[in-house]
């Protein structure tokens, strides 16, 4: 197998494993919530329900964000902002 083949196969495996992990995560959370458990200790590790905040901002804050984006775009177009280019690999799989 070539270096490229190895990369493509590994990329596909990671995608499938990540999907499986997310499905398992969903099932575990559902089970723990149904049982009213915040933490489950097992031989392979501890599973804890964490409370994550999702913020919703008022219009005036969203407007500030739009002004910030516009200011960034202006700085980029006038040359006031600077950038550094780094080499990065983009991979598009043909494995189904």
Task: Map the helices and strands.
Elements: H1 3-35, E1 39-42, E2 45-48, H2 59-78
Antiparallel strand pairs: 1-2
Low-confidence stretches: none
Radius of gyration: 22 Å
Strand count, sense and closure of the main sheet? 2 strands, antiparallel
The helix fraction, in percent, is: 55-70%
Q: How many domain regions?
A: 1
How much beta, percentage-wise?
Answer: 5-15%
Strand order of the largest sheet: 1-2
**Overall pLDDT:** 95
Number of strands: 2
- List the secondary-structure elements in sequence, H or E: HEEH
Question: End-to-end distance, in Å?
Answer: 18 Å
Oligomer, anyone? single chain
Write up this protein.
- The chain has one domain.
- 55% of the residues lie in helices and 8% in strands.
- The chain is built from two helices and two strands.
- The chain has helices at 3-35, 59-78, and strands at residues 39-42, 45-48.
- It has a two-stranded antiparallel ribbon.
- The chain is flat, with a radius of gyration of 22 Å.
- The mean pLDDT is 95.
Condensed summary:
This protein is mainly alpha-helical and 96 residues long. The protein is 55% helix and 8% strand.
Highlighted features:
mainly alpha; flat; 96 residues
């Amino acid at each position: 197998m070539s270096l490229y083949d190895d990369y493509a196969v590994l990329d596909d495996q990671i995608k499938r494993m990540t999907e499986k992990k997310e499905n398992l995560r969903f099932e575990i959370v559902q089970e723990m919530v149904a049982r009213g458990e915040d933490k489950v200790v097992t031989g392979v590790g501890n599973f804890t329900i964490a409370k994550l905040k999702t913020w919703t901002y008022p219009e005036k804050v969203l407007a500030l964000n739009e002004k910030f984006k516009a200011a960034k775009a202006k700085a980029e177009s006038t040359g006031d902002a600077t950038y550094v280019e780094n080499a990065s690999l983009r991979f598009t799989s043909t494995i189904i």
